[in-house]
Each structure stands twice: as C-alpha cells, then as structure tokens.
Amino acid sequence: MPHTRYPNLFIVGAPKCGTTALSHYLAGHPQVFMSETAGIKEPYHFASDLGFTHFGPMIYDESAYLRLFDDAPPSARYRGEASAGYLLSRQAISHIVRQCEDPRFIVMLHNPVDLAHSLHNEHVKSFGEFPDFETCWQRQAARLEGRNLPPRFRNGAALQYGDMAKIGAQFERMLGCVDPRHVHVILYDDFSTDTAGTYAAVLDWLGLAHDGRTEFEKLNPSITYQWPRLEHALRKIRTLRRALRLPGGLGIHAWIDRHNKRLMREPLRPPFRRQLCDYFRDDVALLSRLLGRDLSHWLN
What we know:
Layout: E1 9-11, H1 19-27, E2 32-34, H2 62-67, E3 78-81, H3 92-99, E4 104-109, H4 112-127, H5 133-138, H6 140-144, H7 161-164, H8 167-175, E5 183-187, H9 188-193, H10 195-206, E6 224-225, H11 228-243, H12 252-260, E7 261-262, H13 270-291
Parallel strand pairs: 1-3, 1-4, 2-3, 4-5
Antiparallel strand pairs: 6-7
C-alpha cells in the first residue's frame, strides 16, 4: 500500500532542461507544494543507484525525505520534487510507482548533443572536470576503467556523457513502468521559446486553475568560467571559511565572479558536433517515435 505522505508529482529530467525553473514556478502555485520550499529541490531519494559522485548528497532516509513535505498545506493537491536524474536512474521511476499513490510525472527533454555539452560544462563549473569537452568525450571508455579521472571523481560512471544524454532510451525505459496518461513531456525548445504557454499547459494537464503568473525569470542558466581553476579555488576558500565560521562580506569573491563568468559555452568544433550527431542519431529517432514528433532537426 503506497505511503500517502509521499509526494505525488515528480519532475524527472533530464538535467539542464529547465527543471529548476519549472519547479520554482510550480512552487508558487497555491495548490502545489514543492520540496524546494523546504530547502531541497533535488532529494534523489529514489535513485540510490546513481550514488553521490555526480548528483550530490541524496536523502536516503525515509523519515528525512518525508519531512520535506511536512509543511505542505491541506489545500495542496500536489506535493512534488524535481530530481532531474530520476530519468537516468534505472530504479527510481519503478520505485516511485510502487511507493507513491497515483504519481504524476513531468519529463523535460533536450537535444542530446546540447545536453551532453551542458552536462560537461556543469562538471567543469562545479566538480573540476577537465575543460575540453572533446577530450573528455574521447576518454569515456578509459574513465570507466578508472583512468584519466578528475580529482573529485572516484569512478567514471558519472562522466559517461553519451549514456547520460541518451534520453530516448531512458524515456522508453520509463514508459515500461508508467501509465502514459500520467506522463507530461516538455521539450526544452518549447519551454525556452514559450515559457508562459508551456507552464499553462502543465497546469491544464494537472487540472489546476491558472495562478496568474506573468513573470518567468530564467533560473540556473548555463554559465562557464574563463578560469575554472580560479573558481574551484574560491569554492574551497568559501567552504573553509564556513567550516571555521569566519566572516565574509567583503565582496571580493563576487567581484571576481563577475569578471570570471560567461553565459555561453565554448562552441563545438563542427567535425566533433557531427560525431556527436551520429552518435545520438538512433536515440533521437527512438524518441521521435515515442513522442510522435519529428526531432531530426536536432541533428542538423
């Protein structure tokens, strides 16, 4: 018997597809309570197979997980969370279906070429990955054997950009254990070009009244750094300062960030982009069939 205190709404991915923004918009609806309101957007409770390496700390403990939803008001028809990597996990979706009562899933998808590039950029920004994506792509097999790993990675599973971005195969696996009527798909192309319309369609699908939202601020934009090592050094200093409870507030780090950040990733070399397109061609064709929508333009 499903535990009735568990959430019933899940934004399941993929990463870097707008999940942070959609979670934030839904958290503002009077009939939706998202776990980010309790301080954690991505608890990853159901995805223990992914480990800590890429997705950060996970809330394994059931009572700690359920406490995220303690403050959900009685008026909330949906209690939700947005652990984007649930789509990648081989166990999360089936665990959710077994444990939760009548769950609904919002699946956010992106061109896998751009997704793989974004995942690499996120690793560079947050985890000290080597900056050149093309080199990292060529090292995937070696990394599975434990070679050529960045310092903060214990194994190469979280650095398999090809597998992580095969959203067609991941979505097909998901449909094997979920009623398609309980799944709402959003393509990042649509979300980025018509955010208001996409959000309204989500509310319609959930059977919720429109909340009058007119502002759709962009959250968690894809940024990179001119000097990644400088950013990693600053993060270590901030972590040490917090651990020692030393005061900050001088604004030096913020000043450096303003000059170090860039909003655009380095473009891929055309031959390398063609290589990625060939790699993902069958997966994009699979997703096109599953969605009944031609996505071949992703590979142009």
